[in-house]
Amino acid sequence: MNMQKKLLAWMMVGALAAGSMPAIAGQNDEPQAGAMVVDLVIARPVGLVATVIGSVAFVVSLPFSALGGNVDQAAESLVMGPARTTFVRCLGCANQGKRLKSASE
């Protein structure tokens, strides 16, 4: 039980650190080395856990969402949002989505 409390505490620290990613990344969307390391070590694993937990919550809530008519909103909030942040966002970037090269690069 003590190990579970430590794991939960580290996950909370990771979630708080992931929330500060835009501050670490700086004002522009050009990823810095420090932001990439924090993203790789903390934010991506936390995002993966959030995607798995959100998927389970979505399946459990599916009958209620279907009755309420908001299956699309539940899927976006619980599964697609965390998955997009985890798998599509470029490493170290603060904004979601792939980083597109500009004409000057």
Give a structural overview.
- With 105 residues, the protein is mainly α.
- It is built from 4 helices and no strands.
- α1 crosses α3 (33-68) and α3 (33-68) packs antiparallel against α4.
- The model has no long low-confidence stretch (mean pLDDT 80).
Topology:
Layout: H1 2-19, H2 21-25, H3 33-68, H4 71-87
Helix pairs in contact: 1-3, 3-4
Summary tags:
single chain, 105 residues, mainly alpha, 4 helices
Q: Distance between termini?
A: 52 Å
Helix count from the secondary structure assignment:
4
Uncertain spans, ≥5 residues at pLDDT below 50? Answer: none
What is the chains' assembly state?
A: single chain
Instruction: Spell the H/E element sequence.
Output: HHHH
Radius of gyration, rounded?
A: 16 Å
Compact overview of the structure:
By secondary structure, this protein is mainly alpha-helical. It contains four helices and no strands. The chain has a domain of about 60 residues.
